[in-house]
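Record type: ASSEMBLY
Status: queued
Input:
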Amino acid sequence: MQTGTALIYDEEMTKYKLLWVDPACKIEVPERLTVSHEALVKNGLVDRCVSVPVREATDADILLVHSEEYLEAVKKTPFMTLEDLMEFTQQYGDVYFHPNIYHCAKLAAGAALQLVDNVMTGKVRNGMALVRPPGHHSMRSAANGFCVFNNVSIAAQYAKQKHGVERVLIVDWDVHHGQGVQYCFEDDPSVLYFSWHRYEHQKFWPQLRESDYDCVGKAKGAGFNINVPWNKVGMQNTDYLSVFFHVLLPVAYEFCPDLVLVCAGFDAAIGDPEGEMCATPDIFAHLTHLLMNLADGKVCAVLEGGYNLTSLAQSVCQTFQTLLGDPTPLPVNLDGPCQSALESVHCVRSAQKPYWSCLKHAADLPTFELSTKRIKVVEEEERTEKVEEEKNTEEIVWPDPPKRVSPCVRTAVVLPDGVDCPDGCKRFTDLHPDPLLGKKLENILKDSNDSDALSTLSSLTALIEKMETNKICNGLVLVRDVSMAMMCVVQHAASLNKRALIVCVANEAIPIDLTDDGKTIMVHFSSKESEEQKGKYYIPVCLKKGCSDTSGIMQAVLGLVLPLGYQYNPDLVLLVRMPDCRISESVWQQLIGILQGLAQEHTLVLMQENEKASVTPSASTLLGNPAPRLGPLQGPQSDDVEALERLRQKLQSDWTLLQTTAPDSR
Ligand SMILES: NCCCNCCCCCS
Ligand SMILES: [Zn+2]
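Status: finished
Output:
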């Protein structure tokens, strides 16, 4: 299994800067790269990465996206006088040239290509290139927004041409709309471009009508361009996650890319003068994690924006730590998305509805949107270029991101004799069994002197304690009686006063009574509608075709289990596979991989001892290897979707991150 995270950085790219006064460009400084790299060094992350050298993009590489006349024009800039450079710069917007910027722009694009080469040839699993000038605003024949060559667009074309990649997903989490990328691929169904961006109803730079949610791509590319406008500033972690759960991830899994490229701009983080958002740097640990089970883990991030040197450095470190496989930090105190974010999610989902089967049941455009569409056209004439006022975002403070320590044992296993311990795992037995355990579990144990049941259960409870004290990251346990073991875990977690999220895949009802204290939440996948109500912390997800229904499970995992799980914020995730369920191995692995974003990756997988064939694949994902791709997903069954929507309607007043539509409050 491929491992290794590439870091691509060269200090040569710090050797250009603004040589004259221009308030619009003064934030794009060389220190952006130096503080990022220094933070990686300070946190010991450089040594953990595979350092890959930059290279200059060739003319042929650059001409994959840009015109010859543009390239020829830029080629002249190294020999220009200061006056010539200023005059040359005038023809473009919000960008500056410098005698060395052409060289650096070739290195920035070449760095992205080096990253693609190393990931596609399997030298590394994933990686990030720290580059400047950024790229996502530059267009075929124009520099723009600090960008000279469109690094990520060139990388996407290069991946298709040189490595035969058929489907590329570009995730642009930068706070600006990468219009250059949109223009490059808007009629290309092999490249799915997703961007969120500060928009404020077209009042924010670059003030383009085509950045709005209804610009979905053209001709064959219709549906392969996704714009999520932020119409207010101050968006928080929960708003970003809401868009991943309810827009990006369902579509990304349906698209099933061979490669994921990230326009990794960190001006979407708190403190940035451009974005003026409130999402904290640790959010990028989660955004990165949520992409890492796509494309067999082939994720290439390329730096775009990020202008607050403190949040930029922290965000870069958070991203690298996740690429390296470190446990994600706890997603604390997530309330629901704000009204404006909810409206954007609602509008995007309805605009994309005709193109994606995972959205075919999405709500139609809210009525207020239909009426205001005309009003906005009227405002167009009134729109005036807002005067550049100094943003005093330098004073904004936020807590340091939490330490993310990898436990010395990543995956512990409790297996019956005769079942080999998978490579990389550590067999676990309880060295100090609790003599009173039989007593404590008598309500669960049918036969309290069943010694090997007792020894398995004592290993199980001891394993949970090792996870809670962060000595072990996650675990895999095979037992004879899965239901009994599950109840033992529930009882033990509650006795430790730990919150447990249980995701149980089965094919019929399971004998469990959840306490109503909210200590435990259970999501139960099955093929039968469970008649009796088992309290608000028991959530039955009914799939007509049962757990063999890949798209049904994925629809529920992405749109219900993830938002619920992130908002519940458990200390432990218990993944239970009942003997008779017919879940496919790769879906099971996706479930394990995706849910590791919760509880600092303290995931406990519980299966029946005859599931020997599933030990290695389950352990592989617990060890941090990407779950296998599921292939392009078909649409889920309509009645399953309707059942899921009824469930969402019922739960979303308690779990507001489940919302996907804005109440028609206008
Ligand atoms: N307040 C300065 C206006 C800057 N406008 C261009 C921003 C380009 C960002 C590239 S990520
Ligand atoms: Zn930006």
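Annotation: The pocket of 5-[(3-aminopropyl)amino]pentane-1-thiol (ligand 1) is lined by residues 24, 94, 134, 137, 145-146, 174, 176, 205, 265, 267, 274, 304-305, 388 (CB under 6 Å).
Annotation: The chain has a mean pLDDT of 93.
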